[in-house]
């Protein structure tokens, strides 16, 4: 697992609401770059194996969503959840979860995750290539702090969730305030 100092430069394929389109699906494609998302900002990022999966849906995303205002009070500009899922899946998961504060960023091709060194094979679960669970603070594109779950490996039989959680991140931010 390589350790990198800055977030990789990639283009994310996202969908955004555009009322000028009309109809039942008023969305259009919009490319978002690493620079747009991270330059000049302090951003908390957490990455997880998949939308609609148990730990991601019951604990990981909901807790970041619930603590959003506390993160903002500590100088965080945005919270981003990244998953190797497409924009359509991430949108529907966000709706189902009621995620209004955390930005759900699709890494559909896994390019960002791969360049972060966090892409793992989860073929043992029928998932294919997915993100290992981790969180990080990104300050103006520089990785300030990373929390990587233990046991990083392809086809890991478990899904550790010990250090990438919202409370660990919040405690870190409070300690460096």
Task: Describe, in plain words, how this protein is organized in 3D.
By secondary structure, the chain is an alpha/beta fold. The protein has one domain: Glutaredoxin, CATH 3.40.30.10. It contains 6 helices and 9 strands, in the order E-E-H-E-H-H-E-H-E-H-E-E-E-E-H. Strands 5-4-3-8-9 form a 5-stranded mixed sheet. Strands 1-2 form a two-stranded antiparallel sheet. The radius of gyration is 16 Å and the shape is globular. The two termini are 29 Å apart.
Outline:
With 177 residues, this protein is α/β, with parallel strands linked by helices. It has helices spanning 34-38, 54-66, 68-73, 87-97, 111-115, 166-175; strands at residues 11-17, 27-33, 42-48, 78-83, 103-106, 119-121, 129-131, 134-139, 142-148. Belongs to the peroxiredoxin family. Prx5 subfamily.
């Amino acid at each position: 697992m390589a350790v990198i100092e800055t977030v990789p430069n990639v283009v994310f394929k996202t969908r955004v609401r555009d009322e000028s389109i009309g109809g039942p699906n008023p969305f259009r494609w919009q490319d978002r770059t690493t620079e747009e998302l991270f330059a000049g900002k302090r951003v908390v990022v957490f990455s997880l194996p998949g939308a609609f999966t148990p730990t991601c849906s019951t604990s990981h995303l909901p807790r970041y969503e619930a603590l959003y205002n506390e993160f903002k009070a500590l100088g965080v500009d945005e919270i981003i959840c990244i998953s190797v899922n497409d924009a359509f899946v991430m949108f529907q998961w966000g709706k189902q979860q009621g995620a209004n504060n955390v930005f759900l960023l699709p890494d559909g091709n896994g390019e960002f995750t791969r360049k972060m060194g966090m892409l793992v094979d989860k073929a043992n679960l029928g998932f294919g290539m997915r993100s290992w669970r981790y969180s990080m603070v990104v300050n103006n594109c520089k990785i300030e702090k990373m929390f990587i779950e233990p046991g990083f490996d392809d086809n890991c039989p478990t899904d550790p969730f010990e250090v990438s959680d919202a409370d660990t991140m919040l405690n870190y931010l409070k300690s460096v305030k």
